[in-house]
Structure formats: structure tokens, C-alpha cells
Amino acid sequence: MSSLEEAIALLTPRRRLLAFTGAGISTESGIPDFRGPNGVWTKIDPSEFTFDKYVTNPETRKRSWQMRVSSGVLDAAPNPAHRALVDLWKAGRLIGVVTQNIDGLHQAAGLPDEAVVELHGNVRTVDCLECGASWTTEEVIARVDAGEEDPPCTECGGIIKVSVISFGQAMPMREVDLAQQWAAQCDAVVAIGSTLSVYPAAYVPLEAKETGAAYVIVNQGPTDHDDIADVVVPGPAGETLTSLASRLITNP
Ligand code: NAD
């Protein structure tokens, strides 16, 4: 039996699925991952972009805004893997998606905000770290394009930052609580497109497994949980999730 058939057999009787997604689900939308063969961290040192360096070093902020301008994340469109999760959700098989991604593509594909927990924030908004004023990222990118290399807050002059969680920054409490609730409620968790090496986020599928859920991984390349999962499907996310969702929906 192929690993995909094993995953389908394991998931078919389980009604409440939780999806846990990482950067690999969005590479087919043209957004590079961090640790895959062409990942961003093969070209850039992540220790240059900690929260501490962002708030203390104007050069880090300038580089961050330049990378934001050229990243293309705001222009990306969802792919078949994001749409397959929407199909599962509409069929009543998915509690929700806990994502490490910041690209908003689960919602762009059609999941409502309440079905998505964004553990690492999102790229759509920018906040002032001092007074809490907020803007759309497009508004701030327009200022960068117009020549402001390190745009300050227009209200108080403070440092502004895209609403993503940087290395060294705490994860949002409400999102962490909801992810833990879903991990306790699901009877199977499917991790997709993640090396499962970033903690505390990667505790979510482990918590589900510890409370009795089956654990399936869909990923190209090894992950840190391959020995813990019940089934590992080594295929591309789009094709694999499309097959998985159609089989789970047609065999309710
Ligand atoms: P990662 O870069 O560590 O791992 C991605 C994994 O997905 C790799 O093993 C890669 O080989 C695999 N992969 C790539 N394309 C795939 C495909 N089409 N199908 C199946 N697997 C594929 O990603 P991670 O574990 O999510 O790392 C964590 C951090 O990356 C998170 O904090 C997240 O915020 C950040 N990130 C997010 C985005 C995004 O929002 N799209 C992009 C880059 C990084």
C-alpha cells in the first residue's frame, strides 16, 4: 500500500481533522520556504533578523522593508493545496488550520478567519510598536517606494513593524490557546509543508498526538517528526492534498 493510501485509510474514520501548515504549502504559490532546498535561509542569515536587532538597528529595519517590497508575498494567490483544505472544511471534516505562515493564503482560498489560527502573525498589516497605530502593509510599502527607507509611525514617530512574529518575539496568547484547544479536540492532525523544527509552534501536532490523535505528515523532504508520525507522505502538497481531500469527501 502506498503511503497516500495508508493516510487515506487512517483518516477516513476520523471525523475531526486539524491541519498544521508551514511554508512548504505555499511554495506552489511562488513563495519560497525557509529551509527547503531553495529556501530563504540558504541565502540570508536568520540571526540578522531577530526582534532585538529590528528595534535597535535602523539598518536591519531598512533591509527588512526592502525584502518586504521585493518578496511578492502580498501578490501571491492560493494553490490547490490551500483549496483542498477549504473543501475539507466545507465538508465538515476540518476543525481548522493552525498555520505558521504569514501569507494569508488560507483565507484567500476561502477559509473564514475563525477557521485559521496564525501563530506567527500576518503580512497584511503594520503596527507601531510604541503607540499601537496600525496601517495596511500596502500603505507603508507605498511610503518605502516613495523613498522612506525606515518609515516611522505617522502618529508618534515610533518604530513600525509588519505584524509578523520575529525570532525572539513571543507568540500571540489568544492564537496559542485556540491552537491548543483544537489539538485537544481533533482525532487526527495533518502537518503539511513544514520541517516541524520551529518551536513552540511545532508542539501543536505533538500535543494532538499525545492526546490520542493520529498523526499524518505531508512533506517533501525530511521533518523532525518523521519518527513520531503514524504515516509520512513524501509528495508535493498540492497534488497530495487534492487526492486526500477528494477521497475523504467522497468516502464520508
Ligand atoms: P520550512 O522552510 O522550515 O520547511 C518547509 C518544508 O516544506 C521543507 O521541508 C520543504 O522541503 C517542504 N516543501 C517545500 N515545498 C513543498 C511542497 N510543494 N510540498 C510539500 N512540501 C514542500 O518551513 P516551516 O516549517 O513553516 O518553517 C517555519 C517558518 O517559516 C515559519 O515560522 C513561517 O512563519 C516561516 N515562513 C512562512 C512563509 C509563508 O508564510 N509562506 C514563507 C517562508 C517562511
Mean of pLDDT: 94
Number of separate helices: 9
The number of domains:
2
The distinct bound ligands, ions and cofactors come out as: nicotinamide-adenine-dinucleotide
Uncertain segments of ≥5 residues (pLDDT<50)? none
> What portion of residues is helical?
25-40%
CATH class of the largest domain: Alpha Beta
Question: What proportion strand?
Answer: 15-25%
Tell me the CATH architecture of the largest domain: 3-Layer(aba) Sandwich
By secondary-structure content and strand pairing, the structural class works out as alpha/beta
Computed over alpha carbons, the radius of gyration is 19 Å
Assigned CATH superfamily of the largest domain: TPP-binding domain
| Topology order in helix (H) and strand (E) letters | HEHHHEHEEEHEHEHEEH
Number of strands: 9
Structure explained in plain terms:
It is a single chain. The strands form 2 sheets. The protein has a 6-stranded parallel β-sheet with strand order 3-2-1-7-8-9, with helices on both faces. The protein is α/β, with parallel strands linked by helices. It has 9 helices and 9 strands. The longest helix is centred in the first third of the chain and has 14 residues, at 58-71. The chain has helices spanning 3-11, 51-56, 58-71, 80-90, 105-109, 137-145, 173-185, 203-210, 237-250; strands at residues 17-21, 94-99, 116-118, 121-128, 134-136, 160-164, 188-192, 214-218, 231-233. The relative contact order is 0.20. The protein folds into 2 domains: 1-31 and 77-120 and 171-252, TPP-binding domain (Rossmann fold, 3-Layer(aba) Sandwich), CATH 3.40.50; 38-71 and 123-164, SIR2/SIRT2 'Small Domain' (2-Layer Sandwich), CATH 3.30.1600. The two termini are 21 Å apart. The radius of gyration is 19 Å and the shape is elongated. Nicotinamide-adenine-dinucleotide binds next to loops.
